[in-house]
Design brief:
5-stranded parallel β-sheet; two-stranded antiparallel sheet; single chain; alpha/beta
């Protein structure tokens, strides 16, 4: 293990493939993949104070606010002080980035820049299994049986904000919130941006960048 622990973040709009990129990085470099969505689902199931708070917003169809997500993530990161990790879905706002600054120093921030039309097409074809967060894309990663989850056989749903009419507003909202976060990390010299329409074409460049920071446990070809 490298002497210094690696702290990395992957930023990208909904539909950018950041979950896939994070999974590949985690597998290739032995990093813990920490997903804010996954931790939020776990805290909802756990029924603790933060879970109860988050549930109140979700039941009313509202976004879970910054301070609740931040509490979920800070609790999880405190448990992982001795691990290499990779954050997925956090920080999304300047307030979250500032909270993260208070507990650690980031080494690397990867920003995925995907054209608007590509994101719109991907999101409109996206269906999810609510209990696990598994994501399917009807164009390039469909379920084995139309409309049901591969592992549980439970029905898939399309999120309201993945429906075509909601996608444009959602992407604009992400962009407005993410802009100051991206500027912050750019000013520190730790931001690395990758542009393209296909995750498989972006991946080799991401792999090369990470390899310069931490020894891989899997070769690029093994992915």
């Amino acid at each position: 293990m490298a002497s210094k622990l690696l702290r990395a973040v992957v930023l990208g709009p909904p539909g950018s493939g950041k979950g896939t990129v994070c999974e590949r990085i985690a597998r290739s470099f032995g990093l813990q993949h920490l997903s804010s969505g996954q931790f939020l689902r776990e805290s909802l199931r756990g029924g603790g104070e933060v879970g109860v708070l988050a549930k109140q917003y979700l039941e009313r169809g509202l976004l879970v606010p910054d301070h609740v997500i931040t509490r979920v993530m800070m609790t999880e990161l405190e448990k992982r002080r001795e691990q290499h990790w990779l954050l997925d879905g956090f920080p999304r706002t300047l307030g979250q980035a500032e909270a993260l600054d208070r507990i650690c120093e980031l080494d690397l921030v990867i920003s995925l820049n995907i054209p608007f039309e590509t994101l719109k097409d991907r999101l409109s074809a996206r269906w999810i299994h609510p209990a696990s967060g598994r994501v399917y894309n009807m164009d390039f990663n469909p379920p084995h049986v139309q409309g049901v989850d591969d592992l549980t056989g439970e029905p898939l749903v399309q999120r309201e904000d993945d429906k075509p009419e909601a996608v444009a507003a959602r992407l604009r909202k992400y962009k407005d919130a993410a802009k100051p976060v991206i500027e912050l990390y750019k000013s520190r010299g730790i931001l690395h941006s990758f542009s393209g329409t296909e995750t498989n074409k972006i991946w080799p460049y991401v792999y090369t960048l990470l390899s310069s920071k931490i020894p891989p446990v899997l070769s690029d070809e093994e992915n």
